[in-house]
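User: Predict the structure for this protein chain, please.
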Amino acid sequence: MLREVADLAGYFMTTGRNLALDHQRRKRIAPFVDGIDGLEAVCDPSPSAEQIAIGINELRRISAIIDNMPPRARQVFLMSRIDGLTYTDIGTQLGISPKTVFSHMVVALERLRSEMMSED
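Assistant: Here is the predicted structure, written as structure tokens:
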């Protein structure tokens, strides 16, 4: 293609001028963005009103599911997930074996999973 250009110096000058004009035009269009790093300042990290409403609904939904769990499964679930206790610690406090704690946890997690899947 370059072999067909009669004035090679003029061709490169025109190409360079066009690239410089394109660069200046882009700077005018988005002067506040300097690459991907500049995009962090543009976005708002706080959740929108819609995201907050969705989160509140999900929290209410999960809370209702937990409230409807069998009492011992709910107790084990909360002690494990909220209080951060181990199955051994839970078993000691409730007077049951860690294996029984595990069984109650399976019931709680299955209930949570199935209810969350059924309401989608």
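The first helix runs from residue 8 to 29.
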